[in-house]
Structure prediction request, 625 residues.
Amino acid sequence: MSMSRRLSKWEPRKPVPAEERQLTSAMIASLAAEGLPTVSAPFGHALAELAETQENIVGLTADLAKYTDLHVFAQKHPERFYQMGMAEQLMFSAAAGMAKEGFVPFATTYAVFASRRAYDFICMAIAEDNLPVKIVCGLPGLTTGYGPSHQATEDVAIFRGMPNMTIVDPCDALDTAQAVPAIAAHDGPVYMRLLRGKVPSVLQDYDYKFELGKAKVLTEGNDVLIISSGFMTMRALEVATTLKADNIGVSVLHAPTIKPLDTETILRECAKSGRLVVVAENHTEIGGLGEAVAMTLMKNQVFPEMKHVALPDEFLDAGALPVLHDQYGISVSAMLTKIKMWLNK
Amino acid sequence: MNPSSETPISLARRAWNIRYKSVQMGAVQGQGYVGQALGISDVLAVSYFHSLCYRANEPEWEGRDRFLLSIGHYAIALYAALLEADILPEYELETYGTDNSRLPMSGMASYTPGMEITGGSLGHGLGIAVGMALGLKAKKSDSFVYNLMSDGELGEGSTWEAAMSGAHHKLDNLICIVDFNDQQADGKSTETLSSEPLDQKWDAFGWYTQRIDGNDLDAVIEAFDNARNHEKPVPRVIICNTKMCKGIPFLEEREITHFVRVEADEWDKALQVLEEGKPA
Prediction:
């Protein structure tokens, strides 16, 4: 069964009326729901601030400073900013070289270009030598409607296979800002998925602090445990609030560090009996958080009923993000429908 | 500056010693990229005993010139140079390629003192060198970065990304050495994916370009000196035309392949031929 709505390219389409027209969500898509507070460029500001006290931080980009919020750092610290041009293989090699000279490079591009195009260079020059290069990438998973060229739906799967690589998928502006000093302090390579531009901020309402390698329980509930990373945690919290009104208790366990996974917390939470476990991720169902959690549970012989909210193993359509998130089942409403179905309610 | 400058040993003898050690290591395993090692020995002799600034007992000394071996399979040649330079102890030669050795067949940074990067996957060295040269400039260091690469690596797009970048950032502390032996895995480089006219390409990319006979010691010395002393704020490249298996005529004459086949009884013969041509 394919979820693709792609029609034959030989079939002419009639234009839809202007008032019904959905615009493609290109590079500056905002994931904020109505009414959520947002913060502008949390990564860029956090890095610029950290660089005030940490002199060995440098920033590199492959022609995408403005689109990864690195321009904020570049404006504050122009002498520590390196424009490497549209040359990702070079950028990650050069980042390795700078790390060998004692710097902590933050190198930015889009997730597709780091994971697909520069893989061998990140693997051999950075990961094999265990160098402290921080690879911070925009448009992770399905965060643009531009089409498969820019949709990094398999980035986590690609980097999970790379030894020494730590993978971080922050939820919101607060998480992103707190992750920056934490990954800078880690003595090794890190891949961080980036939400840029006006980024929603939700975690200030929870007793939460980002800790590298730690998963945190944000809300408690007795019926469902959602384990999530990235902006799917925002969605999970909304799901929890909505289902509470229906007397369904949802616990949300936010796991922003996908590798190494906080297996202790995940096992502890999954071992609590009677709860449906739902892993929710902005990533293909292959090779991401869901499979990481499943393997942890199997290896430790913890067997809850487990479901997965993730993108299908397909090249996704272009279009408007809200439409695509609904279509591929990672919107709040799609999650609500699925979870109610799984609970038989 | 250079540790050898006070020693009376001639560069010709250093190059010969590097050749001899390479063949000795090849004999230990009965295999190895000795063809490339014999071809590049003169360049390595000039690098380690004329140009490079380093401390043999402190391979990671901050003030050293960095020498990057982009071509991981040339490790046997660099080990010979590192042994000759006393960066590695003489007795480890016999461990070449054996289990638990610090001298694996392909060069890796985590295994060997003096091996700055992990080569092997080709087309990586020059980009890393660009980053190191940028880093050294940011630290106001006077050190140079040397990147030794092969003509086969000219087929990798990443090499040209790095070439553009080196000129763009005016990296006059970056010296790239291209070993042009016209040999890669499937045959002649010029017949596999030709990079000619190569000197014009580097020149057009904004590099101070020299093309020399890489087996002519005097020419290599002059080119290395020119590269260090060139006054313009541009990166430098020395294209060294070399001969595979140089110094051992019966191997030179053999139909040259990427991985030179040396029969079991020929290793001693190769060492014997070298002995006969031993310089003072």
Summary: Chain A has twelve helices and 14 strands.
